[in-house]
Amino acid sequence: MGAYYYERARIVAEKLRECDFVYVHLDEADDAAHDRDPLRKKFVIETLDEYFLGPLYDALADTDVTLIVTADHWTSSRTGHHLNRPLPVLVHSRRFAEKVGKTFSERITEGGYEFWVNAKDFLKKVIFGFK
Fold first, then answer.
1. Are strands 90-92 and 74-75 parallel, antiparallel or unpaired?
2. Could you give the 3-state DSSP secondary structure of residue 123?
3. 69 beta partners
4. CA 49 to CA 2: how far, in whole Å?
5. So what CATH class is 2-128?
6. From CA 130, how far away is CA 115, in angstroms rounded?
7. For 14-29, what is each residue's pLDDT tens digit?
8. pTM for the whole thing?
Protein backbone atom coordinates (compact mmCIF):
# COMPACT_ATOMS: atom_id res chain seq x y z
CA MET A 1 0.00 0.00 0.00
CA GLY A 2 2.90 2.38 0.73
CA ALA A 3 4.21 2.20 -2.85
CA TYR A 4 0.70 2.95 -4.16
CA TYR A 5 0.45 6.16 -2.10
CA TYR A 6 4.04 7.17 -2.79
CA GLU A 7 3.39 6.98 -6.55
CA ARG A 8 0.17 9.00 -6.13
CA ALA A 9 2.14 11.67 -4.23
CA ARG A 10 4.67 11.86 -7.06
CA ILE A 11 1.91 12.26 -9.66
CA VAL A 12 0.05 14.91 -7.62
CA ALA A 13 3.26 16.92 -7.05
CA GLU A 14 3.99 16.80 -10.79
CA LYS A 15 0.46 17.92 -11.68
CA LEU A 16 0.53 20.74 -9.11
CA ARG A 17 3.52 22.21 -10.91
CA GLU A 18 1.47 22.23 -14.15
CA CYS A 19 -2.07 23.05 -12.95
CA ASP A 20 -3.74 25.60 -10.72
CA PHE A 21 -5.85 23.00 -8.94
CA VAL A 22 -5.70 19.25 -8.36
CA TYR A 23 -8.38 17.25 -6.54
CA VAL A 24 -7.40 13.91 -5.00
CA HIS A 25 -9.94 11.61 -3.38
CA LEU A 26 -8.52 8.76 -1.27
CA ASP A 27 -11.29 6.56 0.10
CA GLU A 28 -9.56 3.71 1.93
CA ALA A 29 -9.95 5.17 5.48
CA ASP A 30 -13.67 5.73 4.83
CA ASP A 31 -14.03 2.16 3.57
CA ALA A 32 -12.42 0.87 6.76
CA ALA A 33 -14.83 2.94 8.89
CA HIS A 34 -17.83 1.65 6.93
CA ASP A 35 -16.52 -1.88 7.63
CA ARG A 36 -16.32 -0.94 11.35
CA ASP A 37 -12.60 -1.67 11.41
CA PRO A 38 -10.92 1.11 13.44
CA LEU A 39 -7.51 -0.60 13.44
CA ARG A 40 -7.49 -0.72 9.63
CA LYS A 41 -8.65 2.91 9.52
CA LYS A 42 -5.76 3.89 11.82
CA PHE A 43 -3.33 1.92 9.65
CA VAL A 44 -4.60 3.61 6.47
CA ILE A 45 -4.31 7.09 8.01
CA GLU A 46 -0.77 6.39 9.24
CA THR A 47 0.19 4.97 5.83
CA LEU A 48 -1.27 8.02 4.06
CA ASP A 49 0.72 10.29 6.36
CA GLU A 50 4.01 8.47 5.77
CA TYR A 51 3.79 7.58 2.08
CA PHE A 52 1.50 10.22 0.60
CA LEU A 53 1.46 13.41 2.65
CA GLY A 54 5.10 13.31 3.78
CA PRO A 55 6.53 12.91 0.27
CA LEU A 56 4.01 15.42 -1.09
CA TYR A 57 5.02 18.05 1.50
CA ASP A 58 8.67 17.46 0.65
CA ALA A 59 8.04 17.72 -3.10
CA LEU A 60 6.16 21.00 -2.68
CA ALA A 61 8.48 22.61 -0.11
CA ASP A 62 9.99 25.04 -2.63
CA THR A 63 6.66 26.10 -4.13
CA ASP A 64 3.83 28.47 -3.25
CA VAL A 65 1.29 25.67 -3.57
CA THR A 66 -1.43 25.50 -0.92
CA LEU A 67 -2.34 21.96 0.05
CA ILE A 68 -5.67 21.35 1.79
CA VAL A 69 -6.29 17.99 3.43
CA THR A 70 -9.76 17.18 4.70
CA ALA A 71 -12.54 14.64 4.40
CA ASP A 72 -15.82 14.79 2.53
CA HIS A 73 -17.74 13.48 5.59
CA TRP A 74 -17.31 11.88 8.99
CA THR A 75 -17.76 8.10 9.24
CA SER A 76 -18.01 6.33 12.59
CA SER A 77 -15.85 3.23 12.95
CA ARG A 78 -18.23 2.11 15.69
CA THR A 79 -21.44 2.14 13.62
CA GLY A 80 -20.14 2.34 10.05
CA HIS A 81 -22.51 5.26 9.39
CA HIS A 82 -21.91 8.86 8.33
CA LEU A 83 -22.26 11.46 11.06
CA ASN A 84 -22.99 15.18 10.87
CA ARG A 85 -19.85 16.43 12.64
CA PRO A 86 -17.24 19.13 11.96
CA LEU A 87 -14.38 17.92 9.78
CA PRO A 88 -10.70 18.34 10.52
CA VAL A 89 -8.86 20.45 7.96
CA LEU A 90 -5.12 20.82 7.44
CA VAL A 91 -3.95 23.80 5.37
CA HIS A 92 -0.33 23.50 4.31
CA SER A 93 1.23 26.50 2.60
CA ARG A 94 4.36 28.59 2.90
CA ARG A 95 2.26 31.74 3.52
CA PHE A 96 0.30 30.05 6.28
CA ALA A 97 3.41 28.51 7.90
CA GLU A 98 5.06 31.93 8.04
CA LYS A 99 2.10 33.19 10.11
CA VAL A 100 1.55 30.27 12.49
CA GLY A 101 4.73 28.19 12.35
CA LYS A 102 5.32 24.76 10.96
CA THR A 103 3.70 22.75 13.74
CA PHE A 104 0.06 21.77 13.30
CA SER A 105 -1.65 21.39 16.67
CA GLU A 106 -4.38 22.77 18.89
CA ARG A 107 -1.95 25.45 20.11
CA ILE A 108 -2.30 27.32 16.83
CA THR A 109 -5.60 28.69 18.14
CA GLU A 110 -3.68 30.46 20.93
CA GLY A 111 -2.39 32.83 18.23
CA GLY A 112 -5.95 33.89 17.43
CA TYR A 113 -6.38 31.79 14.29
CA GLU A 114 -9.91 30.58 13.68
CA PHE A 115 -10.38 26.96 12.74
CA TRP A 116 -14.14 26.65 13.07
CA VAL A 117 -15.08 27.76 9.60
CA ASN A 118 -18.36 27.32 7.74
CA ALA A 119 -17.92 25.41 4.50
CA LYS A 120 -19.23 28.37 2.48
CA ASP A 121 -16.48 30.60 3.91
CA PHE A 122 -13.66 28.07 3.84
CA LEU A 123 -12.08 28.79 0.44
CA LYS A 124 -12.32 32.54 1.05
CA LYS A 125 -10.31 32.06 4.22
CA VAL A 126 -7.72 29.89 2.49
CA ILE A 127 -7.34 32.36 -0.39
CA PHE A 128 -7.40 35.59 1.64
CA GLY A 129 -6.01 34.31 4.93
CA PHE A 130 -7.19 33.22 8.32
CA LYS A 131 -7.78 35.86 10.99
1. unpaired
2. helix
3. 90
4. 10
5. alpha beta
6. 8
7. 998 888 888 898 999 9
8. 0.75
